UniProtKB/TrEMBL annotation:
Protein name (record): DNA-directed DNA polymerase
Cofactor(s) annotated in UniProt: Mg(2+)
Gene Ontology, cellular component aspect: cytosol
Protein's UniProt keywords contain Electron transport: no
Coiled coil: none
Polymerase/histidinol phosphatase N-terminal domain segment(s): 338-417
Biological process (GO), any one: DNA repair
Keywords: DNA replication, DNA synthesis, DNA-directed DNA polymerase, Nucleotidyltransferase, Transferase
UniProt source species: Thermodesulforhabdus norvegica
Top-rank taxon: Bacteria
Domain Helix-hairpin-helix DNA-binding motif class: 53-72, 93-112, 128-147
Length: 575
DNA sequence: GCCGTTTTCGGCCCGACTGTTTTCAGTCG
């Protein structure tokens, strides 16, 4: 599936939302939504199908959609879309981000109150204008206000994946603009791999900063502000940028200084003092003269410390570990030998089983674990027992066809509100592994949710606890639970905890990874893959690194033979 | 807008929860 399919799917989806709000025929909207899903799941390039004139053979795509898609392939848009877009107030789409507001309610707000943006909606709420509308009330109004507040609070934040993409784009532009000898470095929290970012920091080593004015004139950047001689603020693509400047070439001290964290640097400064050294944002000084610090390694070397990777530079504790020579040997992507938690078209993935296998082989993995949704996850076409049987047959066939990779058969089983898994033991027993995940009933009390998950961990068939906190970064807060109690139970029962590598989740949080490591609970870095791109687990690995994890702490760093052995013994089932 | 026929139009994915109602519509996973 190409990105072109994703692009078209996004456009069709937007069309569906706009139609649902503007028009009264929901089914026209639904047809576009359905088509979006079909295009997204399509295994080949949609425009190749269009070129063959075979679009109408796809389910949910008739004459009109076939014509529109064909036009889109040639022109990047189609007339029906443009017509609707002209009639649709731009700011209205933002409203869908507010929890509890769907197309129906937005339609009412638009028609009854003429609301077309978040700002207008907030104002209407503050004037109590929502409570009189049919279907709305005080609670809804308060919930909306809370949602707007939440959005505003997080509006300046980006997922790390998005922030890195922006940082790369910004660096590319600077490189094109600047003479080749100018050095540009990403520093700050983003370099230390925080899971969400409110800004990005760069260090530029150069004399002349007039290039920034030129970029502002060309509207590539905006809000240019000189805070001090060596600190400039600006906006790039709506994202806040702090640009620090240094003039000394081949000097890594400012890189270290601006990468932080503040606590980390303070610890280094304190250590330097004891050694008769001084650290500033300009360099390392001994008796008022600068020392050579061409690399960060040389900086740490002057302090008698081994190199500390940026992602570890947080609380300052890492400096003490470095002093004792006890820094972790951090996991790398190369250490990951196989992937679990992969969805296929059998539930809500877009890849068929064979496509998944090709992807895994192409990426050099030694084993994979298929885990589609279970029967309760109706919205995700969760597998029923009879469909499981069909999948098993397919797995057996693929094992024969692709002996170069080990294929494990698993399930992502819903953890039901009472803590039970979604299939009886006689079915669960047949899987090589079982991931248990919460997908519904999030609003339980802390005690209830903890009990629910503990009961799931007590189930002998559960192998991995999936996305343990359920958080969606910048989207949904984690559910209330006692992570300490969960980890204790996991340790007691030999269970594995997932580190969901999806950039929206990164769950287990890196702060808990360290705890899991201390408790010797294996962490599995899982892609939760629904499409080929999701096989990229780099953000999961970075989270693991930030959580001090070493290869020995990570379950899927086991090699093929080691994994075979574990799978044959299934220690999580107990004695 | 699509589909499957009862060929020319009516029906179109589940279930729990919430907040609104006073029996249900909208949202969410």
């Amino acid at each position: 599936m190409s990105t072109r399919n994703e692009e078209l799917a996004a456009l069709l989806h937007q069309m569906a939302v706009m139609l649902e709000i503007l028009e009264d025929n929901d089914y026209r909207a639904r047809a576009y939504a359905r088509a979006a899903g079909v295009v997204e799941k399509l295994q080949e390039d949609v425009c190749a199908v269009a070129a063959r004139g075979e679009l109408e053979t796809l389910p949910g795509i008739g004459k009109t959609l076939a014509r529109n898609i064909t036009t889109w392939c040639k022109q990047g848009t189609f007339q029906d879309f443009e017509k609707v877009k002209i009639r649709f107030p731009e700011g209205l789409l933002d409203l869908i981000k507010i929890p509890g507001l769907g197309p129906k309610k937005i339609k009412v707000l638009y028609r009854a109150l003429g609301i077309t943006s978040l700002g207008e909606l907030e104002y209407a709420c503050l004037e109590n204008r929502l409570i009189d509308i049919k279907g709305f009330g005080l609670k809804t109004q308060e919930k909306i206000l809370k949602g707007i507040d939440h959005l505003k609070q997080f509006a300046r934040f980006r997922l790390s994946s998005e922030a890195y993409a922006l940082a790369e784009g910004f660096q590319r532009i600077l490189r094109a603009e600047l003479p080749s000898e100018v050095e540009i470095y990403l520093v700050g929290g983003l370099r230390r791999f925080q899971e969400i970012a409110s800004d990005m920091d760069f260090l530029v080593i150069c004399e002349d900063i007039n290039f920034l004015k030129r970029l502002e004139d060309r509207k590539i950047i905006s809000n240019l502000k000189e805070i001090s001689r060596n600190h400039i603020m600006l906006s790039f693509d709506g994202f806040h940028v702090d640009l620090f400047r240094s003039r000394v070439k081949n000097n890594a001290a400012p890189i270290l200084f601006y990468t932080g964290s503040k606590t980390h640097v303070e610890k280094l400064i304190a250590r330097a003092e004891k050694l008769g050294l001084k650290i500033t944002n300009e360099g390392f000084l001994k008796e008022e003269s600068f020392l050579e610090t061409p690399t960060e390694e040389s900086c740490y070397d002057l302090l008698g410390l081994p190199y500390i990777p940026p992602e570890l530079r947080e609380s300052g504790e890492e400096v003490e570990f470095a002093e004792k020579g006890q820094l972790p040997q951090l996991i790398t992507e190369k250490d990951i030998r196989g992937l679990f938690h992969i969805h296929t078209v059998a539930s809500d993935g877009v890849m068929d089983l064979e496509r998944v296998i090709h992807e895994a082989i192409a990426r050099g993995y030694e084993y994979i674990g298929i885990a589609d949704h279970s029967q309760s996850a109706y919205y995700a076409r969760g597998l029923t027992p009879d469909r499981l049987q069909a999948q098993y047959k397919e797995i057996v066939e693929m094992r024969r066809k692709y002996p170069q990779v080990d294929i494990y058969w698993g399930i992502e089983s819903d953890i039901l509100p009472d803590g039970s898994l979604d299939f009886p033991p006689e079915i669960l027993e047949r899987f090589d592994f079982v991931i248990g995940s919460v997908h519904s009933h999030f609003n339980m009390s802390k005690a209830e949710m903890t009990d629910r998950l503990i009961k799931a961990l007590e189930n002998p068939y559960l192998t991995i606890l999936g996305h343990p906190t359920g958080r969606l970064l910048l989207g949904r807060p984690p559910y209330e639970l006692s992570m300490e109690k969960l980890l204790e139970k996991a340790a007691e029962r030999g269970k594995i905890i997932e580190l969901n590598a999806h950039p929206h989740r990164l769950d287990l949080d890196w702060r808990w990874c360290r705890k899991a490591r201390e408790m010797k609970i294996p962490v599995s870095i899982n892609p939760d893959a629904h499409k080929p791109h999701d096989f990229d687990i780099s953000y999961g690995v970075m989270t693991a690194r930030k959580g001090w994890l070493e290869p020995r702490n990570v379950w899927n760093s086991l090699n093929r033979e080691e994994m075979r052995l574990v799978m044959s013994r299934k220690p999580w089932r107990g004695a």
